Amino acid sequence: MKKILITLLKPLSFLPALLMMYIIFSFSAQTGEVSGNLSYRISYQIVETKNELLNTGKSYEELAYEAEQIHYYVRKAAHMTEYCLLAVAVSFPFYVYRIRGLRLFLLAGIICVGFAGLDEYHQSFVAGRSPGIRDVGFDSLGALIGILLVQLFCWSTLHAPSSGNKKRHKRR
Question: HEC profile for the chain?
């Protein structure tokens, strides 16, 4: 019964990846103005929080200027974060299906980079947005980080020596 349940639930391990793809697609469907305003508000919140923590007493104009200075980096960090999360969501199910090492790296990488390219193409149809090869590069870098994190996590978890395993091996 347990094997049947696992067999039935395995395909559901891809649901987080599909959800992440939906979230990325939804962000890309925002107009350029909406997307720009969202990332600017985040940029402003960052500099405002820094201002409060360091008690620098900057004016609204100074904060707005600082927010504008980091706006580009916030947008690119968002790209990398989205695709890092996508790569994690794609990679873990492959581990469940015993796809590991270079095969996992290539398969998850192809899926993430391919989706990044399709997403940029999708943006060409959205008002105020345009596709950017540089964005695919940032997306790919985020995906690489996510895949490496999963590989490191799974390798260290599955290959870490534990005292329970050593005892079992000594008894044999």
Answer: CHHHHHHHHHHHHHHHHHHHHHHHHHHHCCCHHHHHHHHHHHHHHHHHHHHHHHCCCCCHHHHHHHHHHHHHHHHHHHHHHHHHHHHHHHHHHHHHCCCCHHHHHHHHHHHHHHHHHHHHHHHCCCCCCCCCHHHHHHHHHHHHHHHHHHHHHHHHHHHCCCHHHHHHHHHC
**Total length of the chain:** 172
pTM of the model: 0.84
Tokens of 58: 């900057």
At position 133, the amino acid (one-letter code) is I
Nearest residue to 78 via CA among 28, 34, 5, 114: 28
pLDDT in tens, 12-21: 899 999 999 9
- Residue 112 CA to residue 80 CA, distance in Å, equals 11
- Residue pLDDT, tens place only, 30-81: 999 999 999 999 999 999 999 999 999 999 999 999 999 999 999 999 999 9
Instruction: Taking residues 4-33, report their average pLDDT.
Output: 91
Pick from 83, 93, 151: nearest CA to 115 = 83
Contacts (Cβ under 8 Å, ≥6 apart) of 130: 123, 124
